[in-house]
Specification:
single chain, alpha/beta, Rossmann fold, five-stranded parallel sheet, 8 helices, about 15% strand, EC 2.7.4.9, Thymidylate_kinase, ATP-binding, dTMP kinase activity, nucleotide biosynthesis
């Protein structure tokens, strides 16, 4: 698969360590495969999607309707896909995205109780059948993830981070249900362990879709 594009998403509840994992994996892949690796995030990845991200995260959006929120995430995802992800894949790059479709299914479908199937239908219009080749789901207890946020990025806590504990519990439960629903695409990694062990577990899974030693 050396000469083919590969799309990998990293998912997980708050504080799971997605960004840290991507920051560790990207330089390794560039060095080992001698290929371009695009690191990106959702919502975001380009000016339009980043503008939507700012709106979603702002404290002034505290009264945002749940369906409005789901629609905005889907809109940002569409722009991210057509402006950032697809052009990279067309150039046979490896794409590592911090969140993608499953975040909406977990946060809006489960956390906001909009229903996974309804949010999936909305996002199917946005993504037009483009799914990751592999999704690494970083799992850990909600309380531990939120404590990590409070300790490590107090200045970056946003509107969703401040949701009540039961919201975050529903998000994690939904992620676990997605793992059972899409076992051919989503792989669970225990994020409640030292970062180096998380990275090594990710290497093993990446070696199955990329010609790189684990």
């Amino acid at each position: 698969m050396v000469d083919q594009s590969v799309f990998i998403s990293i998912e997980g509840p708050e504080g799971a360590g997605k960004t840290s994992l991507i920051n560790a994996l990207a330089p390794e892949l560039r060095q080992n495969l001698k290929r371009p690796v695009l690191t990106t995030r959702e919502p975001g990845g380009n000016p339009i999607a980043e503008g939507i991200r700012n709106m979603l995260a702002a404290d002034t959006s505290v009264n945002m309707d749940a369906r409005t929120e789901a629609l905005l995430f889907a809109a940002a995802r569409r722009q991210h896909l057509v402006e950032t992800i697809l052009p990279a894949l067309a150039k046979d790059e490896i794409v590592l995205s911090d969140r993608y479709l499953d975040s909406s299914l977990a946060y809006q479908g489960g956390g906001r109780r909009l229903g996974v199937d309804d949010v999936l239908a909305l996002n199917e219009f946005a993504i037009d059948h483009v799914l990751p080749d592999l999704t690494l789901y970083l799992d850990l207890p909600v309380e531990i993830g939120l404590e990590r946020i409070n300790q490590q990025r107090q200045s970056k806590i946003d509107r969703l981070d401040r949701e009540k504990l039961d919201f975050h519990q529903r998000v994690r439960e939904t992620y676990l249900s997605l793992l059972e629903r899409f076992p051919d695409r989503i792989v669970k990694i225990d994020a409640n362990q030292p970062l180096e062990q998380v990275i090594q577990a990710a290497r093993v899974e990446l070696s199955k879709v990329l010609e790189v030693e684990s």
